[in-house]
Amino acid sequence: MSQHVDNAVDAVRTYIADHRTAFLDDLSAWLRIPSVSAQPDHAPDVRRSADWLVAALKDTGFPAAEVWDTPGAPAVYAEWPSDDPGAPTVLVYGHHDVQPAAREDGWNSDPFEPVVRGNRLYARGAADDKGQVFFHTLGVRAHLAATGRTSPAVHLKLLIEGEEESGSPHFRELVERHADRLAADAVIVSDTGMWSEDTPTVCTGMRGLAECEIRLYGPDQDIHSGSFGGAVPNPATAAARLVAALHDERGRVAIPGFYDGVVELTDEERELFARLPFDEERWLRTAKSHGTGGEAGYSTLERIWARPTAEVNGIGGGYQGPGSKTIIPSSAMVKLSFRLVAGQDPAHVRDAVAAWVPGRLPEGVRHEISFSPATRPCLTPLDHPALQSVVRAMGRAFDTPVLFTREGGSGPAADLQDVLGAPVLFLGISVPSDGWHAPDEKVELDLLLKGAETSAHLWGDLAEHWRHAP
Amino acid sequence: MSQHVDNAVDAVRTYIADHRTAFLDDLSAWLRIPSVSAQPDHAPDVRRSADWLVAALKDTGFPAAEVWDTPGAPAVYAEWPSDDPGAPTVLVYGHHDVQPAAREDGWNSDPFEPVVRGNRLYARGAADDKGQVFFHTLGVRAHLAATGRTSPAVHLKLLIEGEEESGSPHFRELVERHADRLAADAVIVSDTGMWSEDTPTVCTGMRGLAECEIRLYGPDQDIHSGSFGGAVPNPATAAARLVAALHDERGRVAIPGFYDGVVELTDEERELFARLPFDEERWLRTAKSHGTGGEAGYSTLERIWARPTAEVNGIGGGYQGPGSKTIIPSSAMVKLSFRLVAGQDPAHVRDAVAAWVPGRLPEGVRHEISFSPATRPCLTPLDHPALQSVVRAMGRAFDTPVLFTREGGSGPAADLQDVLGAPVLFLGISVPSDGWHAPDEKVELDLLLKGAETSAHLWGDLAEHWRHAP
């Protein structure tokens, strides 16, 4: 590391140490607002949270910060242009709404009264996602202080959603409506985590998601399994056979065309994944599962991060109550979700599924299939210059080499990639023990401040190494 | 037909015609008692129905008629010994409880106010089963009148259950408790139907029934299909694969040992089934189904009457509500029922199923399996002398050749066969249009009286051709 960088690291670290108390006080004030988007009672709190954030961003120095209304809960938008007109534009994404939480769910303290125990800050939203949004405010101040600048080295934009915990029902529409103002060269999503306290990582992509519900109809009503059983098709059997046919004997999805376009893992990616200190027993405990399984030829991490899947989320048909009922059910249904990886087109997958189902049904069973709006996969190649900047910034903050992960889940980030046509990078400092959506959610204070350090280093690095969008 | 038989036919027919009005009046009085065993409100009515029947049987001439209590609804027992000590003993089975019914379900008249429209008697229980129990009272009187006897030609016993429409929860216990008094050479079940108005048939057997519920457990709780999907086993998928594996590609049940002991159809039986005027389109309408399917190499009637089956009565797992939920469910379940045919031992089938399941589950999915009490199949060979008597008696009543059916369902008759060690014969005059369990249940008056004629001819024929139990 050069002296120049060393100095910057020290300057950032000093600034952040000096402002730690005020930062935590402010964050705590925000965490006290129970901005639970899923509970209508809390709608005023979600609005209060948005207003609070607008004020905080103005205090931080953002020349423009405003509430963006949606038909649901409001988002917050802010921008701080660089005085360098040729600098890249970066959009930070996060959310200010939180999951429901109540003391009686098993919290050791009031979820909306932040408290520090040990070196952890406990509160609903501490990690998901207020803490990770808010470290950027400290980060940009540290960036300015350490560099002597009066505006960020990049054109900085923030979009902080208010409905992420409710499934982002209006997010895409919001992004489309404001696409001009949101235009960016790269999107930084700060709503994820890293491998562990000791292993900082950058997430390079998320899987996409296509979902459908298939309803199968047999007899016009439930019929007697004695009088008719063995001679007419049973839609529950048909549903089961459909699900059983989803995978071949090697665990690959057996729907023709499903893998079309899949971007295969590179040797480098596989090698980098393999460097992560992965403890399968421990992972199984996290997964609350009792065995691994899946596509042959891939490791567990490769399966959840880089391979597409077909999963049954729900199946139902016939009598499910206590005891027995000797019927052939009149209908059955399955809910399927397909995780998609880079290169897969959700519309193509949808067509492949829709084309596959009818041929697998017996005569006398008709079907209906409905698809939910899909989420595209996103993936930033390891050699992308913006990704390299994130890695360097994080490396400076953590003083340790940064590895790579991906995210098996899917998120609204893909809408940003889609609408804005910008690569999405994931910068998160949460760790698996933070308890997202669970009682006693917390954030590690050291990591929170490392997040601010990373943010502080990132803007200058981006401006230096990525003068213009490719 | 001999002159002797002709005379007997005429004498029986004349007696029945002469007593038709009183018989229908009495039956109507019984039908007015809403003996709905499934509805606790009607418990006093079920008892009233039993008391009414005891009185009616005594009026008929049965020297002994009594109510038999159970922990649920009461049964009625009656006996009328023959003055011929060497005569066979026959036990008639039926039930005096009825399905629920309410005018607003779609009845054109009060279900408990019997009414004759055209040549049909409409009331709940008209066919199922009061009408078919009651024709035996007229039958035995006609038998005595036509033969000049003062007691029946056979030792006649009646067991009329009060909980058949509630699943006969105490029937087996009742039969076991009274096995000595119920001892018989043959059981005549009058709780079934015949092919059609124009095609009188005798049912020669019922399928048995084994039922189980299989619960599959994967992760300890529902887990995120993005974070974990593709790398851990999904119990809903496992449930589906289990169901899909139940049958091979020829529609045969694929559980090893399932077919052990199955009595195959004889050529004669197949030929006799094939003589029935079967209209598959019409049957499909009755089945409210839109296609046939099942074990290759068998006709629809063979499939429902004479072949064992595996059916899914219920399947469930994961999220079944509106919309989607991206989870790997923690558990799933399937309810299976197996119809069994003669030669199959329910305990052996149970063992075969229990042995088959574990080997079909992936690592990380554990299971629990529970079986309901099973019902044995029953089948009387075509050449059984008692069956031959039923065929002749019915032939005399209907003046037309009698064909054979079986019943795909399963019933408490099997308990009689089991406990008493006697063959079970089915003598029913109901037709498919009678609307069992449906609004506007009715019985065809002509057929009801043919039932009484059959009953009148049967006792003498049995005594003549089957002097002693084999």
UniProtKB/TrEMBL annotation, chains A, B:
GO MF terms held by the record: metal ion binding; peptidase activity
Annotated Pfam families: M20_dimer, Peptidase_M20
Sorted UniProt keywords: Hydrolase, Metal-binding, Protease
UniProt xrefs under InterPro entries: Cyt/Met_Dipeptidase, Peptidase_M20, Peptidase_M20_dimer
Signal peptide: none
Peptidase M20 dimerisation domain: residues covered: 205-363
Single GO BP term: proteolysis
Entry-linked PANTHER family: BETA-ALA-HIS DIPEPTIDASE, SUCCINYL-DIAMINOPIMELATE DESUCCINYLASE
Stated name of the protein: Dipeptidase
Organism in which the protein naturally occurs: Actinospica acidiphila
